[in-house]
Amino acid sequence: MKPLRFSFQQLLLVAFLLIGALLGLAAVRTLFSLETLMGQSRESAAQAIALSTAAQSLSERSLTMERAARQSLVLRDSQLRRRFDEAAGNARDILRRLEDNELPPEYATNWRDRLDAITLLLDGPPETALEREREVAQAFREIDGHSASIAQKVQSIISTRNEALQARFETSRQELTEQVVGSIGIAAVLALAFGVWLARPFKRLEKAIQSLGENRLDVPIDIHGPSDVRRVSQQLDWLRLRLTELDADKARFLRHVSHELKTPLASLHEGVAVLGDGVAGPLNTSQAEVVTILQHNTQVLQHQIEALLRFNAAAFEARQLRRERTDLFALLEDQVDTQRLQWQAHALTVRVEGDRVAMPLDREKIASAIGNLLSNAIRFSPHGGHIRIVLRDMAGLACIDIADQGPGVAEPDRERIFEPFFRGERQPSGAVRGTGIGLSIVHEYILAHGGRIALLPQRQGAHFRIELPHAQ
């Protein structure tokens, strides 16, 4: 896969520009469409005004021609005749304009026919002037009727054009609505696609960081994506290599410390044993007491060294989780059954209750943590006491409560209870004193799963609560 040369910021800018260009194109197209519709509306209004004016002018010309025609017949005045001819020419021009604007030809033809008839009646002998004047008046009445029909038809033409313009408006509105909605939809899809595509490298970064946190250092980190994401990927892989080196150095140091401490300690322990056996000669009472103290302290020191090694090994292994889907309720029952002999020896009652919860976790480590808490509860519980283990499935996490009826934890010890090698002041009588690393290991295992463990306040006994998130 060819690496991207652009950074995340540049790709984000490109995504915004593409989406902005799409929405801007839709806005510009809408603006042009509205401008076109406004131009058509203005043109239609101008044509309507022109048609109405022409129809009104035709009626006015008819009145002018009637006065001029009748007066010219009676007075036989050539100037009045020229006025009639001019008005008739104007009327014919108006009719042509109306015909050019969709007036049916028959309307104009009827009007012209009557006008031609009137023109013929104006020519004739003086003796028939009065009779011809009456015929002219009658002809003008017919012209008025035709003018009214033309005016009515013009209004019909204007209404038809308005309806057509309204239909175009509605069609354009629907088209613009579809374009705007489509553009917004495409922009949303592009935004979602860019968001998913750009977020994918960050999810891989998150998984890589989680792998580092869980100490899975054997998997190289190589994340494809924008240039800045690749740089972070390279830095994380460098960090992975450094952590691998540090873990190796730590393991070598622990092996070296183990060897360097155990060898002289073993020699010291054997020497004290030889003294105690009287090989170098009989010991008096004071010497035998000193030898006993030395034997006890060498054993304590050996136990402390082994506990230190166990704790460091447990802390190292805690980060290496091998998650598998596990029935948590069945795991609790298995731990109770595993320690059955111990709690039966103390005549204890151990009860497991709650919800059935299955979740991905490291079965071995959680079993070790639960087993340690249960072992402590058995160890500190009075003879015939009760131990209660409750599992609950809460919002986003599983909650485990382990409560006993022992002496509990002293108030000054509560804040330090999970520190390595810390042992509280309240210890069971007659029991072997512990190393103080059990609860520390439990704490490490729970933290490695992203959970938490807490000691809750309780009037009698100790009450520990473990919360484990439902890890995906």
DSSP strand tally: 7
Class by alpha and beta content: alpha+beta
Global morphology = rod-shaped
In the predicted model, the low-confidence regions spanning at least 5 consecutive residues are none
How many strands, which pairing sense, and closed or not: the largest β-sheet? 5 strands, mixed
Total number of distinct structural domains:
3
Strand order of the largest sheet: 2-4-5-7-6
Could you give the distance between the termini?
Answer: 28 Å
Specify Rg, calculated over alpha carbons.
53 Å
Topology pattern, helix = H, strand = E:
HHHHHHEHHEEHEEHEE
Strand content: 5-15%
Share of helix among residues? Answer: 55-70%
Count the helices. How many?
Answer: 10
Mean of residue pLDDT values: 79
Report on this model:
With 472 residues, this protein is α+β, with helices and mostly antiparallel strands. The protein has three domains: 183 residues; 92 residues, Orthogonal Bundle (Helix Hairpins); 146 residues, Heat Shock Protein 90, CATH 3.30.565.10. The strands form two sheets. A five-stranded mixed beta sheet has the order 2-4-5-7-6. A two-stranded antiparallel ribbon has the order 1-3. β4 and β5 form a beta hairpin. α1 packs antiparallel against α2 and α6 runs parallel beside α10. The radius of gyration is 53 Å and the shape is rod-shaped. The two termini are 28 Å apart. The model has no long low-confidence stretch (mean pLDDT 79).
